[in-house]
Amino acid sequence: MGEIVLLRTPDTLENVILESQLELPAESSERQLLEPMSVEYKKVNLRQIDTKSFSGKKQSYELVDIRNLPIISIGKPESWEITSLYGPEKIPTAIQSKLKDSDFYLVRLCCSFRSSKNENSVDWARFVINLHSDAQRRQPIAYDLYPMMITNEVTKNVKLTLSPTLKFKEIEGNIGSIEFGLEYMEIQPIISAAGVNESMPNWDYKKVLGAGIQGSKFMYMLMEAPKGMKPIKASLYLQANVKIQDHIFPFIVGMDEKGTELLNVDLVK
Fold this sequence. Notes:
Helix content: under 10%
Largest sheet: 8 strands, antiparallel
Number of strands: 19
Strand content: 35-45%
Mean pLDDT: 81
Structural class: mainly beta
Low-confidence stretches: 26-58, 60-64
Shape: globular
Order of helices and strands: EEEEHEEHEEEEEEEEEEEEE
Number of helices: 2
């Protein structure tokens, strides 16, 4: 049968294009946050969404709380042509038929959350990728997403492949019968994805059992693009709700206060 192509999901974020520690400003009317410590594509501002305090009055927080807000990072996407993931003449016939009309790419996306203290934890976060159309108005879409739904327990040693209908499919037991596969060592709940067959898919992360969202998160998208469409560009942003004492503060990464998406990336060159 030959060697199986097995892509292993990293344990930690490696190629960071944006990293920043959230910060509440001294003036509540301004609410501007720290600029990223590092960014590859362009300078990005982090800003809080709301412009008013929750009670209409200024809130006071201990300096230690303000200085210990989470650090949020976004990693550089990786992409592979589906044809490159299979050996010569090993692409399943059903998949070959789909490749006559469209190009398909496997895209790996990633972000991470680091909280220095549990009191200032990320309660909820949403990672969004906006797939751009080109000058001819050709539009790529998310053909399938993974993970779609992880609810209760930590899932370990997850192996995936692509079904004949080009959908992600979990594998149980021996992987010897497949030509291509993906592997996760561990997936933490709670995760839900949305946006299949759309151009702006997203993944939601929620805290579980009182513990805030922590660690590196990796997501896979099977992207369908019109035949021959290159380059393929996208923008990334991340929303997060952070609990500080008894209040929830919404933040956004990769978008300014006017709703302009700032973190643009090349998925396919």
